Every structure is written in C-alpha cells, then in structure tokens.
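Local shape tokens

___
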Amino acid sequence: MPDQRQTVAQIKRSILTVGGGRGFIVADAEGRRLVITAAHCLPYLPAGRGLTDSVVRTYSELIAPLGNDPEITVECLFVDPIGDVAVLGPPDREVFPDEDEAYQTLVGAVTTPLRMMDLPASDPQVAWLLSLQGEWFRCSVQRIGGLLGITEGADRIEPGMFGSPIIDDNGHALGVVSDGGTGANSLSPRLAYNLPAWLAPPRRRLIGR
C-alpha cells in the first residue's frame, strides 16, 4: 500500500473500535480531533440537536483503540442515518471531565489524523480496506452520485469492518465502509458529499464535466 504522507502504521493507529464496528480519527479546521464512523454503529440515534442537550447525545463506553472493548465516552456531533455517517467528539468537559480527559488521551495518541480527500475521477480507482485480521487489501472504488461504489474487493467486507475508512493510494480517507454489499458491489458514504460542510473535504468535479 503506497503512502506518501503517512506510514501504514500511522494510518492503522487512526482507526478505532466504535461499538461493534470501527471509526477513524480526523481533524477539523480548528484542529479538533474527531471520529467518523457509520451511523449504524451507534447503539441508537440521538434526537434532533434543537430538542436535546449534550448529555442526551452522549454515548458511554462507545470507542476504544482498535481491537479493544469500547470504554471511552463520546458525544455525537452529527449524524445522517440516510447517508449512514456520524461524527463523534469529546463529551462535555464541564459535565464529564474524566470522560473528556480519557477521550483526549485516546485521540491525542495518534500522531497524524487521517487526511480526507474527494475521489477526483469517474473511472474506477484503486483503494484500500483494512480487514478484520488487520491486513490491508485492494479494492476498486467509483463515484456513484453522492456515494462510493466498491466493486473489486467488496465481497471481502465483513460487518465488523463497518465504519472503517476507505483509503486511497496516498493515505487519504475517501469514504466510510457502510455496507457489505450484494455479490460484488457495495455502496458507502463519500466523505466530501455526506459529511457536514464544516468538516467535509472540498468536492472535486468529475473529469469532463
């Protein structure tokens, strides 16, 4: 797996356990370390932001280093159940000071959060997925509207991989593994399309359009 900006080990360290699936660490424009996952990895969906306070959107013991049992508390900052993507952040420091410290320690241990990028072309391109055994394997991805279609390699996706990043040859996260697919095809959220504007990477136009 080629990597120009990050080592393979650094990329792997940015991937976490989230519930029964996975997530991965990124940074927003202000440098806050956040976790992206598939929305269905949450144990339940929170109510709308305008109707609840941060305590209601807080999930106890939801994330952990990859391969460990969930033990760290987080707050859900964004969720799109249709796009199947969620953004998690630290719990309210004033209400959960110990839990916030545990979160900051976990995400702060990652030297470089994953950088995000949009898939630039309409033709299928090589990408990489992390298996349940911790090995990287090749797949092919293509933009299908606001989604990423995974073709080659889709049959190797297993439920415990949901929430994992879809990585390009340069170590950038393109999308979130969301679906095991049917046969040889799988559709997953595209970060540039499904994330909120305050976090999403810039969209790229398809070649020839």
Notes: Residues 98 and 207 are 49 Å apart (CA to CA). The chain has a mean pLDDT of 89.
